[in-house]
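Sat 14:20. Reprocessing the chain from the morning session after the first attempt stalled halfway. Input below, unchanged.
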Amino acid sequence: MKRLEKNIWIMIQSDPKSSHRVCEGMRIALGLAASGHDVSILLAKKAVDMLCGERDAYIDEDLLEKLWPTIIDYIPVFYIYRQGLKSEIPQLFEYKTQFLSEEDIGKKLGEADVFFRF
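Finished this time. Tokens:
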């Protein structure tokens, strides 16, 4: 029998202060996860700021605030690309994070059925 659910990885690296792509990536991740797919979110570059910064300066702050509780229900772990981070990020919200090295990311993406980048 053919497996219907997919292993999907979504990498979000855009700056939430200057791009709608962050919110679009989160919205798409939520829709796919709610449809029964195994969705993982990998945050890199400026997108990591979503987890520890004040969201009131973000382009889509209202929509992100509405999405967060549901995203956390469907996607309980946020993966973070460790390279380039100057320090650990504080845990300001109720979610789990896991840091991945470049090698770890390569392995995970190699196992994915689908990969999106925002």
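The chain has a mean pLDDT of 85.
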